[in-house]
Protein 1
Amino acid sequence: MDTTEMKGSACECGHHRTMPVIVILFGLTFLLKALGTLDAGTVDYIWPILVIIAGCMKWGGMKCKCC
């Protein structure tokens, strides 16, 4: 029997919130560059790190019974 608590279409597991947070940070990075808050060098440093983190989360991330 599945013991994970479902809320809507996703369970309460933390990895269901990780990818949306990374996508938001990715978009925020480019928005701050467009607004002039971050310079191009900083953005060139940040966005590959976010992609690597997302890939690691997807590749070796935690799994729950709902996935």
Protein 2
Amino acid sequence: MIDERQREENVERLVHSSSYRVAYKDVDFLDGPKLRPVRMELELLKPELTFEEQNIRSTIVVFGSTRIVEPGLAEREVEHARARLADTPGDPRRQRVVVRAERILAKSCYYELARQFGKLVSSQCQQGGQCDYVIVTGGGPGIMEAANRGAYDAQAKSIGLNIRLPREQQPNPFISPELCFQFHYFAIRKFHFLLRAKALVVFPGGFGTLDELFDALTLRQTGRMQDIPIIIFGREYWEQVIDFRHLADEGTIDDEHLDLFRYAETAEQAWEMIVRFHKH
């Protein structure tokens, strides 16, 4: 027999046990390896429901390097690198830091172009409460910040799909707060990039940008997504990074696959390509 005190103590232990928690409130349970499919479904569903609530009907995706910053900041980085080199002029590592900083400064024009593009598209397409062709980025700094900033300049909505990384990536301050998301799974994030996309606009970038570009090119090549224009800013940069023509010459892609993308050098040129593609 147990007395009343023991009864109450036992009940107290039971109601505070992990097994007694309501499943959807049990973070430890949801974080377990066997619950991965559920977590992926939640990451798919949360933005989807929000987009419906916010009447986001279509988007334009902007990709590009996190390291291409606005010209003023890029200039300060060059000055800092040169000052450090002046202390040890023969240091090859510091010499290379200067060269790399100068190359980023040379590409800082793309920050301004991404900002112009974001403002142009948003001012054209978000009028009278309509939410078409909403700018969506990866939500981070650099080119992503610039595109969100352009929409912000136009007092329009824009989306940021941030990703959890070992070095935490903070969302840039120009994303619409109600449209700022954080993802754990790259695959679900990519799905949301392209699900409503009416165009993909790619600025100079590194591994992440290449991954996102080739993901879209593959889906377009294989007919596994909607027809959209893929517009690449900076022909001189990209033709040094990837020799697309060589792929066709070697027979590993068809000649017509080179028509899956176009180059642009100005925001107006890129927007005109999108307008012509969708025959607006």
Protein 3
Amino acid sequence: MHWIDFKSPNSVEEAVDLLNDADGKARVLAGGTDLLVQLRGGRFDDVNLVVDGKNIPELNELTYNSEDGLTLGAAVPCYRLYGNAEISRAYPGLIDSASLIGGTQIQGRASFGGNLCNATPSADSIPAMIAHSAVANVAGPNGNRQIAVEDFCTGPGSNALERGEMLVSISFPAPTGGFGANYMRFIPRNEMDIAVAGAGTSVVLDNGNIKSARVALAAVAPVPLFVTAINDAIAGKPANEDTLAEAGQIAKDAAMPITDMRGTIEYRKHLCDVLTRRSLQIAIDRAKENA
């Protein structure tokens, strides 16, 4: 490993200046569970600066109220999410994924912000964030901007951040009545493995019908896949098995997986059908509890 400088700024502005001056050769450290491994493995041979985000207040913010929703700082570790009873009740799909990322030790460091910036197609947190209509708050030398989470990942390991920009936080709208969400995945073993396929789903129910639905898939496309066609097809229909079967078929058709050591194309497409149906059913059950 070559020489790498380490800076620990105390403000977003200071961090942006460091990133901008580094000319694309810097990375922000949130929990480090991905970045440190990647640096040791030589993935970022050109990186000569690591910018620590843990002393920046905005990156460590975790606030929620029923009117404004949830603000999740980019460096907030997973355990703080599921350790908050109020957030756990309001955003069940996020808790599903937060409790699946690695083991207990990893969850003490890993953050949704880091998971998003890492932009791995199999990331567990991203489909859940898409299901919850999350928006990424970005700061850079040209000011602040927002990016819908479904548009944030641009390819395996690449994202929409431009030179000098950093992810500050992720915003989630306050859930409405009749809202429910879920994330589930299939893995070859019970703990600490990479998803063969995953599904993050949410629904809003209205008098027993699906008013709206959001479904995002993991590990079956170059980026986490937001399947907008499902909402187009099932909005207004009863929340029953026939509707879920239709959603599952659309997810299967939309998936663009590859064959690798974890599964074949056919197997992953089948999983998209099964996981979408099962995840939507859990989301529907949770929505009924919030009616």
